[in-house]
Amino acid sequence: MGPALAVILACSSPSEQEFSGPELIGRLGCLACHGLGGSAAAGGFYLDGIGSRLSRPALKESLTHPRRRRPGVKMPSYAYVRPGELEELVGYLERLK
Ligand code: HEC
Question: How far does the centroid of ligand 1 lie from the alpha carbon of residue 52, in Å?
Answer without folding.
Answer: 15
